[in-house]
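Before relying on records like the one below, remember that each one covers exactly one chain. Contacts with other chains, cofactors or solvent are not represented anywhere in the record.
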Amino acid sequence: MHDRLRASFAANGLVYAPPENVVPNTQLALRVTELARDRDVHEAVHDRLMDAYWAEGRNIGDADELRALAAEAGLDDIEPALSDDRYGARVQASTQQAHGHGINAIPAFVLDGKLLVLGAQPLEVFEQVFDTLEQ
C-alpha cells in the first residue's frame, strides 16, 4: 500500500513520507485548525500540518510538534485549542455532521451540496463528477 501511495504522490510531484511507526491521534491537530479558523490562518496552518505529516514524517498528534508547526504557519499560541473544550466540541460536531452526510472516510468531498466523493480519487473521477454537476 505504501509503495502505491508513494508512487501516486511522486507522479503528482509530491513527497510521501508519513512517520513509519506513528499513527497520530489527530484530535489535537483538528482542535488547533479550529483555533486557526477563528484567527484567519486556517489555510496556512492546515497546509503546514499536512506537509509536516505527509512529507516530513512529523507526529501531528504531539502537542509540542503542534506548537512548533502552528507557529511556523503564523499561529503563535495554540494553548486555547489544547485547553478549551469548545474546540473539541466543534471537532465532534463537525464529525457528526460528516457522518450524517454518509462520510466515513477521509478525504471526503461534498460538491455543490449534492455529490459525495469518498477517498483519494484520481483526477478522472472528479472530472466526471464536475461534468455531472454541470448537467
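The first helix runs from residue 2 to 11.
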